């Protein structure tokens, strides 16, 4: 192999190395940026430009991609942070932050690590806010804490090219002793509400029961009043009918005395009547009846046997000394008077009917 051959080989090797170098330089100069990303380019160590989505060309060995920034909204969950409330209780708070890079240059050059910066800023701000609240306010004021956190973080991270969209507190964990106390308090509150509801139910039940009994008593009283009124009206009508019947029949004192004697046995009826008194009108009624049947002076004697009537009258008069005997005698005489009245009615052409007089 001569010198010419060696030189040719060296030339081909140099050409190959040059071609490889050119291909490599071209490959490094062509940059494709994906959607929702931004590349920061430095030229000779200084910031040159920000490349957005698309195809870009770099100057080989002069331009360099310093950082790739994701422009999408990011969710970062911080580990639990111990925070002391105003009443000196330690609570652990888990928080979540939703933020987005709006200025890639500021996010890279204004802070070394913007994620760490957001985390530390969230922790300090959260401690400042919760430190002014007691435990009860901390547990019940999540929206207020979220709003204050978002306002402080958005203002502080604005120079970093970051926009904080939302801050959420995932959990607020008080100490175990406080948890037990809260559970007992909640149980007592539920028991109190249950007792109040039970008492209200019993109260309403008693009120409704009393109202029902009141309405029932009112309706019963009204019914009894109406019944008594109707009964009184019926008795009044019966009395008026009897009174009218007596006046229409032109009853004399003899007939009334006879009816009076018929009612005397009804007075003595009943098991509780141990003693009764004969009214003073009893003698007058007997005399009127005796006069009606010819025992005393009468314009028309009702009996054909004057001796029998006198004997009967004497028996009645002598029986007045004993009231019980007089009652028995009155019962016997009432039956006899009815027979005599029928006989007298047959003579006058108008039969006498005591039951008909009673019905009227």
Strand content: 15-25%
- Average of the residue pLDDT scores: 75
Q: Which outline best applies?
A: rod-shaped
Report the C-alpha radius of gyration, rounded.
64 Å
Question: What separation lies between the terminal Cα atoms?
Answer: 174 Å
Q: Can you give the helix content as a percent range? A: 55-70%
Please trace the helix and strand order, writing H or E for each element: HEEEEEEEEHHHHEHHHHHH
Q: How many beta-strand runs?
A: 9
Residue runs with pLDDT of under 50 for 5 or more positions: 295-304, 319-323, 347-360
Number of helices: 11
Give the number of domains.
4
Biggest beta sheet attributes = 4 strands, antiparallel
Features:
4 domains, 3-stranded antiparallel beta sheet, 4-stranded antiparallel beta sheet, alpha+beta, 17% strand, 360 residues, 11 helices, Tetrahydropterin Synthase, Chain A
Characterization of this structure:
- With 360 residues, this protein is α+β, with helices and mostly antiparallel strands.
- It has 4 domains: 3-70, no CATH class; 74-179, Band 7 domain (Tetrahydropterin Synthase, Chain A, 2-Layer Sandwich); 215-242; 251-359.
- 60% of the residues lie in helices and 17% in strands.
- It has 11 helices and 9 strands.
- The chain has helices at residues 3-29, 104-109, 114-130, 135-140, 142-156, 176-249, 253-267, 281-292, 306-318, 323-348, 354-359; strands at residues 30-33, 37-43, 46-51, 54-57, 63-70, 74-77, 81-84, 90-101, 162-173.
- The strands form 3 sheets. Strands 6, 7, 8 and 9 form a 4-stranded antiparallel sheet that branches. It has a 3-stranded antiparallel sheet with strand order 3-2-5. It has a two-stranded antiparallel ribbon with strand order 1-4.
- A hairpin with a 5-residue loop joins strand 7 and strand 8 (90-101).
- Helix 3 crosses helix 5 (142-156), helix 7 packs across helix 8 (281-292) and helix 8 (281-292) runs antiparallel to helix 9 (306-318).
- The protein is rod-shaped and about 195 Å long.
- Residues 295-304, 319-323 and 347-360 have low confidence and may be disordered.
């Amino acid at each position: 192999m001569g010198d010419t051959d060696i030189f040719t080989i060296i030339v081909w090797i140099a050409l190959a190395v040059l071609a490889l170098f050119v291909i490599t330089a071209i490959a490094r100069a062509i940059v494709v940026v994906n959607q929702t990303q931004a590349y920061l380019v430095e030229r000779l160590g200084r910031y040159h430009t920000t490349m957005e989505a698309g195809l870009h060309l770099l100057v080989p060995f002069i331009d360099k991609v310093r950082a790739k920034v994701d422009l999408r909204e990011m969710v970062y969950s911080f580990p639990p942070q111990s925070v002391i409330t105003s009443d000196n209780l330690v609570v652990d708070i888990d928080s979540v932050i939703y933020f987005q890079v709006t200025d890639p240059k500021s996010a890279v050059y204004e802070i070394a690590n913007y994620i760490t910066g957001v985390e530390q800023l969230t922790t300090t701000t959260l401690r400042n806010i919760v430190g002014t609240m007691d435990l009860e306010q901390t547990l019940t004021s999540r929206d207020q804490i979220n709003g204050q956190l978002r306002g402080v973080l958005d203002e502080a991270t604005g120079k970093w090219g970051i926009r904080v969209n939302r801050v959420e507190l995932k959990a607020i964990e008080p100490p175990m002793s406080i948890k037990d106390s809260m559970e007992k308090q909640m149980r007592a509150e539920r028991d109190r509400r249950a007792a109040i509801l039970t008492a209200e139910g019993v109260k309403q039940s008693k009120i409704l029961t009393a109202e029902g009994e009141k309405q029932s008593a009112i309706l019963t009283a009204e019914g009894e009043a109406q019944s008594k009124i109707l009964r009184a009206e019926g008795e009044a009508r019966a009395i008026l009918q009897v009174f009218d019947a007596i006046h229409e029949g032109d009853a004399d004192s003899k007939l009334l005395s006879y009816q009076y004697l018929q009612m005397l046995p009804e007075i003595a009826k009943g098991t509780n009547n141990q003693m009764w008194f004969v009214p003073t009108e009893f003698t007058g009624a007997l005399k009127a009846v005796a006069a009606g049947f010819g025992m005393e002076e009468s314009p028309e004697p009702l009996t054909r046997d004057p001796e029998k009537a006198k004997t009967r009258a004497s028996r009645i008069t002598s029986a007045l000394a004993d009231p019980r005997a007089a009652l028995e005698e009155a019962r016997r005489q009432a039956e006899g008077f009815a027979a005599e009245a029928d006989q007298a009615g047959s003579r006058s052409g108008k039969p006498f009917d005591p039951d008909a007089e009673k019905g009227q």
